[in-house]
């Protein structure tokens, strides 16, 4: 069996995004339809009826009461986009979950807002009868032609992940500084002295060659300071980081939908009982 799900969106882009997500929930794209002012059968005034169903004619299993259909039609008339999807029963829970996570309109709240601003069409029932407490409506026909109301049992799972955060850091910058240095060194300088001395001595035989020409060269030397520098590594600054792991306990809560059944002895209780949003089809 197939179930028709209806959901209203404020923009077509949101509806198209929800349609794409339904594909991932194993819903055939050919069974998902979007309806807005450009859809065939759209009417600017008035509401659909059994003879003139408007754009509902294109919805295969559009079995919804007048108040539901007309509320959705009003949403489309106000610029929204209606999504309808025929979903196999084995995929219904996943499809409902996907749409509940999309930007669906809470049709009950929205219809109450419209009524508070003066909207009302003849024949609408109580506000609580339109759409139920959620933006999603689902409906099923039993084998006996009766109606089933479906309660999606929703359970949250706690997903714990991790991300990198900054824990502070260090910046090491090297620069050059100059320090005056005072040193002393002893230097030696030579000087050539020339003097003439008076001598009165007889010429010895060894100095018989005293009248030859000759020259004496003598060079004076001196020392001067030579400054040189050499560099030595005297210290190292090492920048590194280490990692450690620890276990952190996460305490949180998760939600789950529970069902409470009140039995009425005057009511047939052999059918499945459900709550939530229902698309009460025509």
Give the spatial strand order of the biggest sheet: 2-3-1-4-5
From the spread of the alpha carbons, the general shape counts as rod-shaped
**Count, helices:** 4
Radius of gyration: 50 Å
How far the N terminus sits from the C terminus, by CA atoms, comes to 17 Å
Describe the main β-sheet briefly.
5 strands, antiparallel
Mean pLDDT, to the nearest integer, reads: 76
Count every beta strand, where a strand is a DSSP E run of 2 or more residues: 5
Q: How helical, in percent, are the residues?
A: 10-25%
Structural class: alpha+beta
The helix-strand sequence is EHEHEHHEE
Strand composition percent: 5-15%
Q: Can you tell me the residue ranges where pLDDT is under 50 for at least 5 consecutive residues?
A: 122-135, 139-146, 267-282
Please explain how this structure is put together.
The protein is of the alpha+beta class. 16% of the residues lie in helices and 10% in strands. It is built from four helices and five strands. It is rod-shaped. Mean pLDDT is 76; it is low at 122-135, 139-146 and 267-282.
Q: Characteristics of this structure?
A:
single chain; 282 residues; alpha+beta; 5-stranded antiparallel β-sheet; 4 helices; 5 strands; 16% helix; disordered C terminus
Summarize the topology.
Elements lengths: L1 E8 L2 H13 L7 E4 L30 H12 L3 E8 L3 H9 L6 H10 L19 E6 L5 E2 L134
Antiparallel strand pairs: 1-3, 1-4, 2-3, 4-5
């Amino acid at each position: 069996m197939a179930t028709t799900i209806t959901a209203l969106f404020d923009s077509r882009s949101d509806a198209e995004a929800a349609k794409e997500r339904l594909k991932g929930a194993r819903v055939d794209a050919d069974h998902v339809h979007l309806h807005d002012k450009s859809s065939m059968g759209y009417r600017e005034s008035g509401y659909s009826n059994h003879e003139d169903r408007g754009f509902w004619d294109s919805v295969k299993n559009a079995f919804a009461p007048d108040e539901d259909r007309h509320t959705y039609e009003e949403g489309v008339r106000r610029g929204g986009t209606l999504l309808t999807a025929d979903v196999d029963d084995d995929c219904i829970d996943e499809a409902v979950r996907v749409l509940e996570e999309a930007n669906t309109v809470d049709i009950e709240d929205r219809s109450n807002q419209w009524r508070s601003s003066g909207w009302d069409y003849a024949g609408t029932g109580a506000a609580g009868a339109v759409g139920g407490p959620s933006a999603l409506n689902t409906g099923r026909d039993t084998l006996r032609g009766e109606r089933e109301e479906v309660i999606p049992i929703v359970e949250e799972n706690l997903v714990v992940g991790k991300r990198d955060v900054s824990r502070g850091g260090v910046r090491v910058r090297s620069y050059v500084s100059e320090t005056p240095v005072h040193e002393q060194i002893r230097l030696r300088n030579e000087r050539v002295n020339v003097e003439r001395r008076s001598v009165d001595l007889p010429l010895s035989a060894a100095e018989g060659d005293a009248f030859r020409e000759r020259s004496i060269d003598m060079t004076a030397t001196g020392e001067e300071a030579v400054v040189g520098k050499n560099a030595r590594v005297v210290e190292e600054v090492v920048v590194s980081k280490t990692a450690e792991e620890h276990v952190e306990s996460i305490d949180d809560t998760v939600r789950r939908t529970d069902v409470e059944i009140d039995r009425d002895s005057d009511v047939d209780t052999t059918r499945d009982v459900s709550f939530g949003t229902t698309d009460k089809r025509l």
